[in-house]
Design a protein that fits this description.
Largest sheet: 8 strands, mixed
Structural class: alpha+beta
Shape: globular
CATH superfamily of the largest domain: P-loop containing nucleotide triphosphate hydrolases
Helix content: 25-40%
Radius of gyration: 31 Å
Low-confidence stretches: 735-750
Number of helices: 22
CATH class of the largest domain: Alpha Beta
Strand order of the largest sheet: 29-30-31-28-32-33-1-34
């Protein structure tokens, strides 16, 4: 071999599987959470920010090098332990316990300074917490390097950034006057094409036409840095910074640059400006005394930089130029906080990092475990990654491309996005990503190795008749990996064969979530307490369990994006509610759903679900809020209807909801047992006519798959009530309910 390749390390169990010499490896694995960032975290994008909750595959965000990179993968939403990481510049970020950071430890920084490069390395939040301090002096151990300047595109501005900076620093908020004490600044103003009108006091000058321009960009009587000016090119942002620093900036005796102002809006804009240029800073506030009296609050920003941040010669000569590679944020604390929903993403930046928050903090992205295939194809083998559908294969391809983008050009690796093929031209290896939803397209190939991803979802004949023969000529091997779904299905049969084998032809591995060293066992135990036993054993313990009592099979659940049905004019929609009053943990949940039906083909869409232990008043507010949210007449859908289980006190709530919101509200009688009432929807699932809108809560699907043996059935009851309301309102007869059409069983009719 002319070259060798280094990839991100596997943890111990993964490495054992990779090193095992068995030809066929069958892996039954539990869920492994991603490394997440809270959903309301700002992510820098071109010309602004986007919340993490809204980040999608294909979005362009920024890496630590300041360049745009592509989002390759977006995880499910997780709810695990969260921590607040605080840095020495007083910035902080909430992240989950498994989120990955690219940090330099104190020892790595010292050795690198001595010419022995050891860092940075990837650590998760818990690892950082457990090694927070270094040495007898308890110094900050972990540091994250500042980003390079973010490379926004050049903008066409009404006012030159430098001139705007001067006015924001020393201009009158009422007009185009600027106080100038350095004649050198006159030259710069005139270089930008402005004329200066002199005043008698010799320090205040009017800049011609400036007042008109200030009015156009909305800063007269409202001094702040306009958003557009925060997203200009590096040169434009530096000129804005120089204008601000030439007026309200200085160099301190300790060689730090400083900027002081009494306008908090300008301070906030200045902070974002510095962060986007990769400059670390600290902000301090105080109330100074003037002639013995306390004056307005002043904020002062202190920072250092390797950029020239002044045009004015007398200030520039005092500036000490710090090297950018000395710019670190030091982690000073890691404190546990209340858990919040998080998700993680994968990007194709050079070092797998991306920027978060308006402080442009560098954080690490996740990598899927495609290294085994990657190394084999790098060694000259012909390798396939076979997913059960086209989109899942695309996710795996993007994961592999994240690794390709880290390789030096001399490795001569090329790729074809259309065919999802990666070619290792030096060795002749090939890594191709396929899907088995069109099996005939897989025929006629000779392979050295393949992975059947989520093997449970492939049909047995795909392996027996197509993929197994493809390995015959080259005596190739395979990995079958999946979360177990079906007892005695073909994947289970393969797994049992591997357990019973006494040779190296086939071997099975069991990898529960507890075997992942990066998952906190206590967190898994907490999940176990609120997850139906059958679901936890299957999804986390990686056990093959019987689903004999379950009414809904996982393979019958269909998924759809909301945007795919918004143009469907055949939709009718209802809110369903199952009530339980009480806010204590021993009480049942109140569950609410938004359910829709296509009146042409009978398809059902589960749009939204929610559950909470709540009071009577809270129930009414939530139901009405759900109805107002999903009353989408703007899409051409008819007015929403509401179905609420009606017995005892619930009848009063039905009346109040109908009175306060004005939507047709039906009281749904509980005249059958829960299983019988669910029968119509169960049949729809069997016919694969029910679609879940993507990203519904995991608790909903867990309850559905465990019904009627699970601990809770609140979501299921809300579905049956919403479905009954649709059928009542539009005269359908397949709801599983019997209605008295004279109105005896319903409280209100349409």
């Amino acid at each position: 071999m002319l070259y060798s390749i280094e990839l991100p390390p596997l943890f111990e169990l993964q490495q054992q599987i990779a090193d095992d010499i068995a030809r066929f490896k069958v892996i039954s694995c539990g869920r492994r959470f991603g490394k997440g960032i809270p959903l309301d975290t700002k992510i820098p994008i071109r010309d602004g920010f986007k919340l993490m909750r809204d980040i999608e595959v294909g979005d362009k965000i920024y890496g630590s090098d300041g360049k745009e990179c592509n989002v390759l993968f977006v995880s499910d939403i997780h709810n695990i332990d969260c921590y607040r990481i605080t840095f020495n510049d007083h910035t902080s970020i909430i992240t989950d316990s498994e989120h990955q950071w690219l940090t330099w430890t104190k020892l790595e920084r010292k050795n690198t300074a001595r010419g022995i490069r050891q860092g940075p390395n990837i650590r998760n939040t818990l690892e950082i917490k457990n090694t927070l301090k270094y040495g007898l002096k308890s110094e900050s151990n972990h540091a994250i390097q500042m980003c390079q300047s973010v490379e926004y595109s050049k903008k066409n501005y009404i006012i030159e950034p430098y001139i705007l900076g001067l006015w924001l620093g020393d201009g009158s908020k009422h007009n185009g006057e600027i106080t100038i004490t350095d004649e050198e600044i006159f030259k710069y103003i005139e270089e930008y094409g402005y004329k200066i009108l002199y005043h008698e006091n010799d320090i205040t000058y009017t800049i011609s036409k400036l007042i008109t321009q200030l009015r156009k960009i909305g800063v007269l009587l409202n001094k702040h840095i306009p958003n557009d000016y925060l997203y200009g090119s590096i040169e434009q942002r530096l000129n804005l910074l120089k204008g601000l620093m030439d007026t309200d900036g200085s160099v301190e005796p300790n060689k730090l640059c400083s900027f002081a102002n009494t306008n908090k809006d300008i301070i906030d804009g200045m902070c974002q400006l510095l962060s986007s240029l990769g400059i670390r800073y600290n902000v301090y506030e105080k109330y100074p005394k003037c002639n013995g009296k306390i004056c307005n609050k002043v904020w002062t920003i202190y920072f250092s930089s390797d950029f020239q941040v002044f045009k004015l010669t007398r200030k520039l000569n005092k500036q000490f130029m710090y090297k950018h590679n000395k710019q670190f944020r030091y982690i000073v604390s890691v404190e546990k906080v209340n858990s919040v929903p998080t998700k993680c993403i994968t990007v194709d930046s050079k070092d797998n990092t991306y920027l978060i928050t308006d402080k442009f903090i560098v954080t690490h992205n996740t990598l899927m475990c495609v290294e085994i295939c990657f190394k084999k194809s790098f060694d000259g083998k012909r390798v396939w990654w076979v997913a059960h559908n086209y989109s899942t294969a695309g996710i795996a391809f993007r994961m592999a491309m994240a690794l390709v983008n880290q390789l030096p050009k001399e490795f001569n690796v090329t790729y074809n996005i259309a065919t999802r093929t990666i070619n290792f031209n030096i060795t002749g290896g090939e890594f191709v990503f396929k899907s088995s939803d069109r099996p005939d397209n897989l025929r006629g190939e000779a392979l050295d190795f393949l992975v059947m991803d989520e093997a449970e979802f492939h049909k047995k004949n795909v392996w027996d008749e197509i993929l197994r023969p493809a390995l015959a000529d080259r005596k190739g091997g395979a990995i079958f990996i999946s979360t177990p779904k079906k007892e005695n299905g073909w994947f289970h049969q393969m797994y049992k064969q591997g357990l019973a084998s006494t040779n190296n032809n086939i071997k099975s591995f069991h990898a529960s979530s507890y075997m992942n060293p990066y998952l906190d066992p206590e967190e898994l135990n907490a999940i176990r307490e609120v997850t139906p036993d059958i679901i936890f054993r299957q999804e986390f313990m990686a056990e093959f369990v019987s689903g004999a009592g379950a009414r809904v099979k996982r393979e019958n659940i269909q998924y759809v994006g909301l945007d795919e049905i918004e143009n469907n004019k055949n939709i009718v929609i209802a809110i369903g509610a199952d009530l339980a009053i009480g806010e204590k943990e021993i009480n049942d949940y109140t569950a609410i759903c938004a359910i829709a039906k296509d009146i042409k083909n009978g398809d059902i869409y589960i749009l939204d679900v929610y559950r909470e232990r709540m009071s009577f008043r809270r129930q009414k507010e939530r139901i009405i809020g759900f109805a107002e949210k999903w009353n989408r007449q703007d899409l051409g859908w008819p007015e929403i209807v509401i179905g609420i289980e009606s017995q005892a006190y619930q009848k009063a709530l039905v009346q109040e909801v109908n009175r306060d919101c004005g939507f047709a509200t039906f009281g749904i009688p509980a005249n059958k047992n829960k299983t019988a009432r669910f029968a119509s929807l169960e049949a729809k699932y069997e016919m694969k006519q029910i679609y879940h809108v993507e990203n519904l809560p995991l608790t909903f699907e867990n309850e559905l798959l465990a019904f009627p043996e699970g601990q809770h059935d609140d979501y299921v009851d809300s579905l049956t009530n919403g479905y009954a309301a649709i059928n009542k309102a539009y005269g359908f007869t397949d709801s599983g309910f019997t209605f008295d059409l004279n109105g005896k069983d319903n409280v209100f009719s349409i």
